[in-house]
Amino acid sequence: MTTLPFPIAEEPDAAMLERGRKLFAGQTTFLKGVVAMSGLPPADRVEVCFAGRSNVGKSTLINALTGHKALARASNTPGRTQEINYFTLADSHYLVDLPGYGFAKAPVAVVQKWQNLLKAYLSGRPTLRRAFVLIDARHGVKAVDREILSLLDKSAVPFQTVLTKADKVKTPELEKVIEQVRASLQAHPAAFPELIVTSSEKGEGIATLRSTIAALADS
User: Fold this and answer.
1) Where in the numbering of this chain does the EngB-type G domain appear (predicted)?
2) How, if at all, do strands 159-164 and 93-97 pair?
3) Fewest beta carbons less than 10 Å away: which of 30, 84, 99, 192?
């Protein structure tokens, strides 16, 4: 039997599910918004970041993971929020919300400043264990996504693809998008070889993502 590239992650066993549940049952608090490398908090714990184009559902996913309805706030205007937002998770993790990329309405100078900060952050954060790149299950990988995937390759940051809004797509269409995503990822050496399919609204894949983040403390 042929093994598919980038299979969908299986549900973790009971012990790992419980570990993920306990981690995210702890307190999650907004720490700070960072606009320059000098403002980063101490690199003293496991760190994961979330990247995705504007309106991919990143803030909604972070809120679903943490169980807080308004912890991460979305902006409807691409390029408006130019901060790297840090959240403390329990006493062991940082969750890092990167601004949505796709800057059609942002001034060129703002785009350049953000891109420079993003490159510096990805290349210079020693405790960053994994980037989770969110891809809209209705659309698949777009050109703007390929830019961030290439940047992660160049920065040698392992990234895992998380499909969002899976409940908005019928099964045949979702399968086509997953195939497109798999084909796109094969060109990226930094890609972790499993996909996570989520629906923040329905709760699909949330427990798996929590457990995945909890397990990174072992690596």
Assistant:
1) 44-219
2) unpaired
3) 30
